[in-house]
Structure formats: structure tokens, C-alpha cells
Amino acid sequence: MSTNTSLFTSYWSSPLGELEISATEEYIYSILFVDSLKRPSPQKPATEHIPLIIRELESQLSEYFKGNLRKFSIPFKHEGTTFQQLVWKELEGIPFGKTVSYLELSRRIGNEKAIRAVGTTNGLNQMTIIVPCHRVIGSNGSLVGYGGDLWRKKWLLAHEARVSGTFQMELFSND
User: Fold this and answer.
1) In terms of domains, do 96 and 163 share one?
2) Residue 132: pLDDT band by 50, 70, 90 thresholds?
3) Which residues are designated catalytic?
4) Fewest CB within a 10 Å sphere: which of 13, 34, 124, 137?
5) Based on the structure, what is the number of domains in the chain?
6) How many C-beta atoms surround the C-beta of residue 44 within 10 A?
7) How far is CA 130 from CA 71, 91, 113, in A?
């Protein structure tokens, strides 16, 4: 992000806790759970001006949690290396209500041996929910790794399974 671009911060209450949203007038830059165990602190103070893009994201998040939205259409910027961008782009292609393993995600980017780097990159995702890193699971179906805490990952996957009519009980057998 260029240094002369203003970054605005807002907080939105989701069914899973408060989300901190950072954006410019044109792009969302991050959506993070405030109270995640893995979240660095302190959080940024909310800005007085809240751009329309944040209000649109809040509306889309609301529709997602109601079960009325399966794919987000909000402009965002993910800052990272070429490899990270590749992984995050692949995450966007995981359909609503479906999951893939870290190994499968590695295969999809053309580098099966990069499974650890894929996992690390998945954990660096700053676009909680809209870039669905919660849809990546262990090869054995276990719920592993989620920057927003595993209980939220379980909730998001159950929500999407319920809305899409898929049944993925095996995801929760190792809890």
C-alpha cells in the first residue's frame, strides 16, 4: 500500500466475535478476528470516517452469516510474495461448503513438496472468511490450523455445510 493512501479501520460484530476491518476507499486490506489467540495486539483504533467499501463488506458478511451469500464480490488487496499470492488465489477457488487438504492445495499450485509453505501461507491470510482458508483441512479430515482459532473454523465449516446441504461429519470426528 502506498504511504499516501489513507487506511481506515472499523469493527463489526459477527456471530463469531468482533472483526477488525481495514480498508482504503477502494480496497479491503484486512479482516481479522479481534480476540483470536493467534492475533497480535494491540488492535488499531476505529477511524471516524468509514468508507463505503467497508459498509458493503459488512453487508456481504451479514448475508454470508444469514446463509444468503456464498461468494464475496468485494475488491481487496492481499500483500505478499508471489508464492503467497498464488496460494491465496487458489484458496478463493475452493467452493462454498467444500474442503481441500493442505496436500491437495499444494498439488493445485503445482508443488506437492511445498505443503509446509502452503500451510504457513494459509495462516498468514489477512482476509478472514472472504478468502476461505477455513476450508483447508488435514489430509486425514482433521481440523488443523486456523488463525481465527479452531472453534471458529469448525463453526464456519458447519455453517457452510448446513447452508449448502453437504454433510461433512468426518471433519468433526477428531475433536
Assistant:
1) yes
2) very high
3) 133
4) 13
5) 2
6) 13
7) 8, 10, 27
